[in-house]
């Protein structure tokens, strides 16, 4: 009897389980209770995460309420789907609508990143009739994202007129930078990059096309063209006859894709190399600029005139020599000798 009146003591429960589970009530329960738990599959070494089927979640970023209303020009991959920025993904997810050049093509990109934003077709055949309704949505506070099939919108793609209209109506136009075929090709071309001219697609009319090529042939900057694959033969023949066979060129094809190719040589060699083959994929073609002519040395009378003007305006002889030599192609020692002869020490 004394043993029945003696109070019962139970060991303290582990810290990670509720104290309730170790109370007398639960200890007397028949049959004894049991519990179980499972480890999520993503932490098991036997089931590694497939990055292709399950892309890594986008890091925390601004919510839709953090984005101001406006037209967002979102650059998309030119081939490899990994070439898209985190900011571009956030904008595409937060937008009220995405204007797309080809909804079927863009749908693959959105599906890959699990983006559910509605798509609206916007291409060269309907861009003018769509502008009024899009402008109204923007004025009402919508977030509108514009994408092209690949690369940066408005660069040889629909969108230039819409961006111009929004700017005129004081509607924010926000660039979301990223992939660009012309810059990717230029950076890897091996041609001069300090100065270049982007021509894009040439006119369809033969006379206009040749006239544009003549202008480019006289430029000293690197010339960049977009060329459809079925017109590469025509382009190379016309360019070689206008630029000359020996002008260096680079043909960039299928950039960032499996069959990426950079062909380098001169226009004459390119005509021969591509005469028997029909390349696939969009082509970015670069042609080296015209060689700069050597500057003619200024006459002694011209140098004397400049020296006299500078010295009469208060400059020292040494400063006048420096300014004249830097402003002309004359050598500094020649300018200095002339200055000494004219004005003495």
From TrEMBL:
Keywords, in A-Z order: Cytoplasm, Methyltransferase, rRNA processing, S-adenosyl-L-methionine, Transferase
Source organism, top-level taxon: Eukaryota
GO terms, biological process: methylation; rRNA processing
Classification via Pfam families: TP_methylase
Tetrapyrrole methylase domain segment(s): 71-270
Record keyword Cytoplasm present: yes
ATP-binding is among the record's keywords: no
InterPro entries: 4pyrrol_Mease, 4pyrrol_Methylase_sf, 4pyrrole_Mease_sub1, 4pyrrole_Mease_sub2, rRNA_ssu_MeTfrase_I, SAM_MeTrfase_RsmI_CS
GO molecular function per UniProt: methyltransferase activity
CDD domains assigned to the protein according to its UniProt record, in alphabetical order: RsmI (cd11648)
Protein name (record): Uncharacterized protein LOC109721443 isoform X1
Origin organism lineage: Eukaryota, Viridiplantae, Streptophyta, Embryophyta, Tracheophyta
């Amino acid at each position: 009897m004394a043993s029945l009146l003696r109070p019962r003591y139970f060991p303290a429960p582990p810290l990670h389980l509720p104290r309730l589970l170790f109370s007398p009530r639960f200890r007397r329960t028949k049959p004894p209770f049991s519990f179980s738990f499972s480890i999520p599959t993503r932490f098991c070494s036997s089931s590694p995460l497939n990055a292709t089927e399950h892309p890594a979640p986008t890091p925390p970023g601004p919510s839709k309420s953090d984005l101001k209303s406006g037209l967002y020009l979102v650059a998309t991959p030119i081939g490899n789907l990994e070439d898209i920025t985190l900011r571009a993904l956030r904008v595409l997810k937060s937008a009220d609508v995405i204007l797309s050049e080809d909804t079927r093509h863009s749908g693959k990109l959105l599906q890959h990143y699990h983006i559910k934003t509605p798509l609206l077709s916007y291409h060269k055949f309907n861009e003018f009739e769509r502008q009024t309704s899009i402008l109204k949505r923007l004025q009402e506070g919508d977030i509108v994202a514009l994408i092209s099939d690949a690369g940066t919108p408005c660069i040889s793609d629909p969108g230039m007129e819409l961006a111009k209209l929004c700017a005129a109506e004081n509607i924010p136009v926000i660039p979301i930078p990223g992939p660009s075929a012309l810059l990717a090709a230029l950076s890897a071309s091996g041609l001069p990059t300090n100065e270049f001219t982007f021509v894009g697609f040439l006119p369809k009319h033969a006379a206009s096309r040749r006239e544009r090529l003549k202008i480019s042939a006289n430029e000293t900057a690197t010339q960049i063209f977009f060329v459809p694959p079925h017109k590469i033969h025509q382009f190379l023949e016309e360019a070689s006859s206008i630029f000359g066979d020996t002008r260096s060129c680079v043909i960039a094809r299928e950039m960032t894709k499996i069959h990426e190719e950079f062909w380098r040589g001169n226009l004459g060699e390119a005509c021969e190399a591509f005469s028997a083959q029909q390349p696939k994929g969009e082509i970015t073609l670069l042609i080296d600029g015209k060689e700069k002519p050597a500057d003619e040395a200024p006459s002694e009378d011209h140098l004397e005139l400049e020296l006299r003007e500078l010295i009469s305006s208060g400059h020292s002889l040494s400063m006048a020599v420096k300014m004249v030599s830097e402003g002309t192609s004359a050598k500094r020692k020649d300018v200095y000798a002339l200055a000494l002869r004219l004005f003495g020490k």
